[in-house]
Amino acid sequence: MGLFENMVKNYKIAPDGFILLSVLMVCGSKGMVQNGKKIFNSIFNEYKIEPWPEHYSCMVDMLGKANKIQEAEHLMHLMPNGPTLSALQSLLNACRIHGDNETGKRVADLLLETGLSDSGAFVSISNVFAERGEWESVARVRKGMREKGVRKEVGFSWVDLGFLDRDLRVYKFASDDCGHPLVGKIYEIVESLGVEMKILQEDLDVEMDVLV
In a 3-state reduction of DSSP, which class is residue 138? Predict the structure, then answer.
């Protein structure tokens, strides 16, 4: 922000749309909502640049992260050619984080109307409906995924095995992975750890009851 203000005030250099977008992104990452609003309003009022969809999306994301959900939704609907996929996804994520299921449902419905094919967006929409207990809508979303041939991307985890023969070894695995040659032993250990954790939790509950 300091560099931007120095460029504009001291060197009298007018920023272009790319610079203004970069400044908005910085404001969003730092949670500087008031500064972000000031920059966004200046795009047209001071620099006579018609705000891009990216400027709007950045502001929607910024407001959503700050739990200004209604303000973000209002701004999103002011976008000249309607809400973009980026803005909708940003607002949907904000609704999930802040527990605004009512707005989340409206955004989810709009996302479904866009004909999206992104697996992450489908999963987010499905989760919003699930949190509202609307299981028919969840089924409809999942059916849409199947019809479009969209599959949820597999999430992987990595385990650091340390150095073997002077090389750092890392093993990658996914949920229900059975590719490791010692898979049987691994699942035995995991099950054993689960039982041990359950016993420790039960002992802790007993201790808490005694204290109460």
Answer: helix
- Specify the long-range contacts of residues 22-30, CB closer than 8 Å, at least 24 apart: 24/55, 24/58, 24/59, 24/62, 25/58, 26/1, 27/1, 27/62, 28/58, 28/61, 28/62, 28/65
Alpha carbon 99 to its chain's center: 13
pTM confidence score: 0.67
- Which pair of structure tokens corresponds to residue 212? 């109460």
Q: Are 147 and 175 in contact (CB under 8 A)?
A: no
Count Cβ atoms below 10 Å from residue 49 Cβ, excluding itself.
16
Q: pLDDT digit string (tens) for 130-167?
A: 888 888 888 988 888 888 777 766 667 777 767 666 67
Q: Residue 168's beta-bridge partner residues? A: 163
Calpha distance 94→68 (Å, rounded): 9
